[in-house]
Amino acid sequence: MVCARSRPTRRTEVLAVTVPAAVMLAVGLWGLDRGGIWRDEAVTFQVARRTVPQIWRLLHGVDAVHGLYYLVMHAVLAVRPGEVVLRLPSVCAAAAAAGMVAALGVRLARPRVGLWAGLLYAVTPLAGHYAQEGRSYALVAAGAAGATLLLARTLDGGTPRMWWAYGGVVAATCLLHELAVLVLCAHALTLALLRSPRAVWRSWTRAAGGAVTVLLPLVLESRRQSRQVEWLPVPDRESAESLLRAFAVGPEGAVFWGCVTLMAVGLLSGRTAAVTAPVMLVPPALLMLFSQVMPLYHERYVLYALAGAPLLVAAGADLLVRRLAALAGRPSRSRVVTAAGVLTVALVFVQLLPLHRYYRTLAHRPDDLAAVAALAAGAVRPGDPVLFLPALGRRAALAYPAGFRGARDLALKAPGARSGTLYGREVGPRELQRRLAGVDRLWVVAEPYALRSRWFPGDPTEHLKLVAVEERFTPRWERARSGVTLRLYVRRGPGTASDGGSPPSPGLPASDG
Asked: Are strands 408-409 and 385-389 parallel, antiparallel or unpaired?
């Protein structure tokens, strides 16, 4: 009899985990090929295709925090470089994260809580967005969810070896992104809330200490590269509210308020809340607090905290159902209740479909480098000199070299792979002066801020680009795509008018009118 009852229970648990993972996989694959990559994905794409020694050299100058991810993607893109393949690891990681969120719900409460939580994670637009990013954040989220699951299993009486597995997963996750270390603070609060014995604290401290020790060299190197995140603003109340709306499945309306209400109820769910609430609350709170002194906060850096939100919502819903059933004096019918919860999640997904569709468009990203390259391909002729203002504007040419085929990069001294930089090393002002002297026709690919009068670059070469273009050349044609301006300049002086009003290539107008 025991075996007969255990089989359906085991099958139910397996279904509760695999169904959300499959749904997340489907959501991640939906619209994966957007027809273009944006700036951060372009960095992944061009760095991961370098040799391992070239990647290693780069990490000593910039992007050390993404080093392990670049090495992983180096192996992935070696199979077949492409935009879809670039995003596939994130899709798979998001599916794994949804499955582990469900597994946490199963372990901490019951199968229907795990099923509801995993499905909620899968239909949350924030999870879907980062599932389709060629960056490390979905992998970090999966690692943090895996570490939390290992912690829950270990607290349930796992073997001592599980502590080392836990420490290993935490270390690997932190090497994917160092700010994942804040999950250890969440886990420490969990141990405190559960009043864990000293032996557990000792084992956890050893495992956590080992992970932090592995992370220290990365922390020291990335601190030296902290200028890369100087653009981050100080988070405020609006930042916290925005994150809550992103975590609460729907950003507004009945879905948002329903999830927030159920989260509040879920805080009463005892052991489930002790594990999940710290994961959701502690990392964002600590990072926002630290960012008041040194801004480091961005929602993507705490994506892994999302795992706690659907678990609290599902736990709150389960607690509410059980209390209502107790008040009615009759037990709830498990299958009916489970199906009702699944149907509710499906209705939430239907309501959020417009947002999911928007997240799968190129308009949702900060830029579209494919569109920039297509614009250049229709205007820049082979042999034409091109200036990128500033140098990071070269990312469109690096991501889509066909759009700039044959163009002469006037300021480039050594490409990124050879110079150990992201966008290449440029010549000094004197050499650039010499190269500009022999040019009568010049294309400028400029970031939105670069052609504004208030931008004063500190780099001498960048400053010369700006001054030389403004003082020695006159604009004759311009187009903008995805915030990037492509402008044709001709040298001032005799003969300028005769070169002027004609379009740079057939079919393109002489001006924007």
From this structure: parallel
Which residue, among 127, 492, 473, has the nearest Cα to 299 in the 3D structure?
Answer: 127
How many whole angstroms from its chain centre is CA 346? 25
Neighbours of 511 (CB within 10 A): 11
Measured CA distances, 145 to 117, 157, 191, 506 (Å): 13, 19, 16, 55
Helix 271-290 crosses helix 237-247 at what angle (to 10 degrees)? 150
Sequence-distant (≥ 6) Cβ neighbours of residue 251 within 8 angstroms: 125, 245, 355
Provide the Cα torsion 427, 428, 434, 435; round to 10°. Answer: 30
d(CA 44, CA 61): 16
Which runs of E-coded beta strand occur in 415-482?
425-426, 441-446, 473-481
Number of helices and strands in the chain (H, E):
23, 7
Given a contact cutoff of 8 angstroms between Cβ atoms, the answer to whether 91 and 135 are in contact is: no
263, amino acid identity: M
Encoded amino acid at 374, one letter: A
Amino acid at 368: D
DSSP state of 481: E
Q: How far apart are CA 72 and CA 404, in angstroms?
A: 29
Tokens 């959020």, residue located: 352
Q: Residue 174 is which amino acid?
A: C
pLDDT digits (tens, 9 = 90+) for 227-249: 889 889 999 999 999 999 999 98
333: amino acid identity, one letter:
R
Per the CB < 8 A criterion, the answer to whether 169 and 143 are in contact is yes
Q: Which two tokens stand for residue 508?
A: 């393109």
pTM of the complete model beyond 0.85: yes
Instruction: Give the alpha-carbon dihedral of 381, 412, 59, 289, to 10 degrees.
Output: -80
What digits encode the pLDDT tens for the residues 62-94?
999 999 999 999 999 999 999 999 999 999 999
- Please measure the distance between the N-terminal and C-terminal CA atoms of the chain and give it in whole angstroms: 83
- Rounded to an integer, what distance in angstroms lies between the CA atom of residue 267 and that of residue 16? 22
Order across the sheet with 385-389: list the strands: 408-409, 385-389, 441-446, 484-491, 473-481
| Cβ atoms of 472 and 443 closer than 8 Å | no
Q: What is the per-residue pLDDT across 338-347, written as a single tens digit (0 to 9) for each?
A: 999 999 999 9
